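Hi support team,

I've been running sequence recovery on a batch of backbones for a student project. Most finish fine, but this one hangs at about 90% for roughly twenty minutes before it completes. I'm not sure whether the input is malformed or the queue is just slow. I've pasted the structure tokens below so you can try to reproduce it. Let me know if you need the job ID as well.

Thanks,
M.K.
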């Protein structure tokens, strides 16, 4: 029987087949190995470049480290309890210790002092740019030791608690006081160190803090009262990781700085400060004769919240004092001139030559809140002596001036009389007499 066509064709096709060579068998595997090797080389080069850049930026003082923080559902963030770090900003490198309660560990005065004052605030209260003993609250503790005379008035002694946390606004300070009061902490006087450059905006804007962490904020109601929103604060793991990278990497911080610089507006002639501050409306909001409605709304809401804090402290028979802390921009005429030209040209705003903080101080007084305006105590010094040139927080000299003024105000409240040298009278501290007869001061 003759074979079919298929049968006769099969041997022929099999005869033409040949086994694959070793090169052909291993070609796909070799390609994958080559791609993997290239990827390893690229990743290694990126890591090496990043490491070298990191070392260079740290060595040339371009590393900024603002501290160790953790998420807090009520406050947004807080210092990591027990943390030890070095605060770095340009030429500044300050060792900082955080106590077990999450506040900067500072000298607080004699443990046998009968009175206790709490200082609430932001980075102008924590003052990471200066050494422990140079912070104004530590200097106050030294001035207010038992039996010491402050401007002619002798004190029985005060312990001074520094409750400042970087980035906090008045909302967070209010909530922090409420938390401490509920936990049983008692103070004989509460001072809010209100910083004018950003505190008002921080209280109402839905903006993120420098690491992207959210904060609780104020919402004005139709009846003139205020309530809180974003409370509890949402937890975002990616935000916390991004914050960790910004905290610990000079490369990441430098890339962010460059990105911000690309978005900066044109720098005015004669501008003496970092370009990123150009065009920030909050910078001169209190020197503008007719600020935009959102700015006024932020002021009113913050003053109303301070009124609620005054009521909360009064319920616990604790007086409240608000210290108005000027920024460098409130005191430097060179800045005001340069920024004023920009604001007029770009926004049509006209600068008002009235005293800084005048409008806010009047609102606080109308609310019945005692006020110490720090401007008169600081304005006789040159700005360069009071503020670090690039870091922009208070120098040791500024901290010493603030400590002297506030310590005199504290003793005046304690004794129920102003110092004989009128240190806290005139246009500096107003409304102290309303605090002179508080119940907790009846130990005399």
């Amino acid at each position: 029987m003759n074979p079919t066509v298929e049968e006769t064709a099969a041997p022929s096709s099999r005869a033409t087949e040949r086994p694959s060579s070793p090169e052909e068998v291993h070609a796909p595997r070799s390609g994958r190995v080559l791609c993997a090797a290239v990827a390893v080389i690229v990743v290694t080069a990126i890591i090496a470049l990043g490491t070298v850049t990191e070392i260079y930026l740290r060595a040339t003082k371009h590393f900024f480290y603002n501290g160790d923080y953790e998420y807090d559902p009520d406050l947004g963030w807080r210092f990591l309890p027990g943390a030890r770090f070095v605060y770095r900003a340009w030429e500044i490198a300050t060792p900082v210790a955080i106590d077990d309660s999450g506040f900067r560990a500072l000298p607080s005065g004699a443990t046998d002092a009968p009175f206790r004052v709490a200082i609430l605030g932001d980075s102008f209260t924590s003052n990471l740019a200066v050494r422990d003993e140079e912070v104004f609250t530590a200097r106050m503790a030294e001035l207010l030791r038992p039996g010491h005379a402050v401007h002619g008035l002798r004190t029985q002694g005060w312990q001074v608690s520094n409750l400042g946390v970087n980035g906090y606004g008045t909302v967070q300070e209010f909530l922090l006081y409420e938390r401490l009061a509920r936990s049983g902490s008692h103070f004989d006087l509460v001072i809010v160190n209100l910083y004018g450059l950003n505190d008002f905006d921080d209280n109402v804007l839905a903006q993120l803090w420098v690491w992207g962490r959210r904060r609780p904020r104020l919402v004005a109601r139709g009846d003139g009262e205020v309530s809180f929103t974003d409370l509890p604060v949402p937890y975002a793991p990616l935000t916390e990781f991004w914050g960790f990278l910004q905290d610990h990497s000079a490369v990441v911080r430098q890339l962010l700085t460059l990105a911000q610089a690309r978005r900066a507006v044109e720098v005015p002639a004669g501008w003496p400060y970092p370009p990123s501050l150009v065009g920030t409306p909050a910078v001169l909001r209190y020197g503008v004769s007719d600020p935009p409605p959102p700015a006024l709304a932020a002021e009113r809401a913050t003053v109303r919240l301070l009124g609620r804090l005054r009521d909360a402290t009064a319920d616990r028979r604790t007086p409240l004092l608000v210290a108005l802390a000027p920024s460098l921009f409130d005191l430097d005429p060179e800045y005001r001139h340069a920024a004023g030209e920009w604001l007029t040209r770009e926004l049509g705003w006209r600068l008002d030559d009235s005293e800084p903080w005048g409008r806010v101080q009047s609102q606080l007084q109308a609310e019945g809140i005692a006020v110490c305006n720090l401007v008169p105590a600081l304005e006789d010094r040159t700005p360069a002596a009071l503020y670090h040139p690039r870091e922009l927080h208070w120098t040791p000299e500024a901290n010493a001036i603030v400590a002297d003024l506030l310590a005199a105000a504290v003793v005046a409240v304690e004794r129920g009389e102003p110092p004989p040298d009128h240190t806290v009278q005139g246009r500096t501290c107003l409304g102290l007499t309303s605090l002179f007869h508080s119940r907790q001061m009846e130990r005399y």
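--
Follow-up from support: It reproduced on our side and the slowdown came from queue contention, not your input. The chain has two domains: 23-60, 63-441. No action needed from you.
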